[in-house]
Amino acid sequence: MRPETRSGLRPGTGSGTGSEADRPSRWHRTDWMALLSGLLFLTVGILYLSVPTLHPGVMLPVVLGGLACAGFVSVIARAVRRQP
Q1: Around Cβ 70, how many Cβ atoms within 10 Å?
Q2: Cα 2 to chain centroid, rounded
Q3: Are 27 and 6 in contact (CB under 8 A)?
Q4: Contact predicate 42/70, CB 8 Å
Q5: Could you tell me where the DSSP H helices lie in the chain?
Q6: Rounded alpha-carbon distances, angstroms, from residue 48 to 33, 43, 79
Q7: Neighbouring-strand partners of residue 4
Q8: What does the pLDDT read at residue 69?
Q9: pLDDT tens, 13-50?
Q10: What's the pLDDT score for residue 81?
Q11: I want to staple 36 with a disulfide (CB 3.0 to 4.6 A). Which of 27, 50, 70, 81 is the partner?
């Protein structure tokens, strides 16, 4: 995924040095799969630390379902992004 250039920015309006103002601002799109997967694994880790009696057989479907939902959101976000 390549960074995109924000359109509509005028040179010289940014704060900083002159060379910074001459080049356009670059940004990356949000990677929803990575973001939601990271949040899922943080939540699972916190649950394992706070509830030590939690059975792994219960958490496996929760993790797999969470990854499936993160993948679905990622696909939907990519489809919405590509619409003109």
Answers
A1: 19
A2: 15
A3: yes
A4: no
A5: 18-22, 32-50, 56-81
A6: 22, 9, 35
A7: 27
A8: 93
A9: 555 555 555 666 678 888 889 999 999 999 999 988 89
A10: 86
A11: 70
